[in-house]
Specification:
The protein contains eleven helices and no strands. Helix 1 packs antiparallel against helix 2, helix 3 runs parallel beside helix 5 and helix 9 packs antiparallel against helix 10.
């Protein structure tokens, strides 16, 4: 379990002053991770995709569905990162009564880990569908090996070393599996145009609130700025359209089936 490893490394090598803030941030992001679209839809979609691939031998359908779920994860995580940068310190001080002001920034870092993990999930869906289990096993070993450099980074840079080490290990795993898939003639690239549109949708409210100096508002005013961010983000998504009509229809069908 990745979170268990984080706790073990943090408890062993972080300074006491940082352990509480990191633990608070991780508990929040563990809750978020449980309700990510990839987690909620996995049991519903994975068997269908594997069965469809066995029937049609069409990797493209698997890739398009996996890419859509990856972008749904981005839809959740990108606002969390920007909101944590803007208001994380104030919100953390309010919730923890001033104990862990740095926790907000750690939330942004842990959300970035979840983005890389979501890309790992995207690649795994493709590898599972084409039954390339061995490369996933090899990738898991590669990632486990990177616990050692992660510990070294933690000893040097604290919490941010842990976050950087975790991301580095997952990136190496992802690169390896993408390389192995490419050797079999299977492409595993995401829709970068749609991803950039979603990133811009999250950046627009961030830029507006940053220019408005919203970071200096009292903790009690964070809620109002949070609502402004969500509203502008929603409008930006409608304008920039990072999701196609077909993807929106797929989501509606999945929601109906889950209900």
């Amino acid at each position: 379990n990745g979170y268990a490893i984080n706790r073990l490394v943090a408890g062993k090598f972080l300074q006491t002053v940082h352990i509480g803030a990191f633990g608070f941030a991780q508990s929040i992001m563990e809750f978020v991770a449980r309700y990510m679209p990839s987690e909620l839809l996995n049991n519903m979609i994975q068997p269908v995709l594997m069965a469809k691939y066995a029937e049609t031998n069409d990797v493209g359908q698997v890739k398009r569905t996996a890419d859509f779920i990856f972008r749904m994860n981005l839809f959740v995580l990108l606002p969390i990162i920007f909101l944590a940068i803007l208001f994380g310190e104030n919100a953390s001080q309010l919730v923890t009564k001033g104990k862990y002001p740095d926790a907000g920034y750690y939330i942004a870092g842990l959300a970035l880990i979840l983005i890389v993990q979501s890309h790992m999930y995207f690649i795994n869906m493709i590898a599972n569908a084409v039954e390339m289990v061995k490369i996933q096993f090899n990738g898991a070993i590669l990632m486990a090996v990177f616990v050692v450099p992660m510990v070294m980074l933690v000893m040097e840079f604290g919490v941010w070393g842990l976050i950087a080490g975790k991301i580095l290990g997952m990136l190496v795993r992802n690169v390896y599996i993408r390389w192995a898939l490419a050797n079999k003639g299977i492409q595993s690239d995401t829709n970068m145009t749609a991803n950039i549109r979603l990133l811009l949708s999250a950046c627009v409210p961030f830029a507006l609130l940053y220019m408005a100096n919203s970071q200096s508002v009292p903790s009690v005013g964070v809620g109002a700025y949070f609502m402004i961010y969500v509203l502008v983000f929603a409008v930006s998504v409608l304008v920039l359209r990072p999701f196609t009509n077909d993807e929106i229809n797929i989501l509606r069908r999945l929601i109906k089936r889950a209900a």
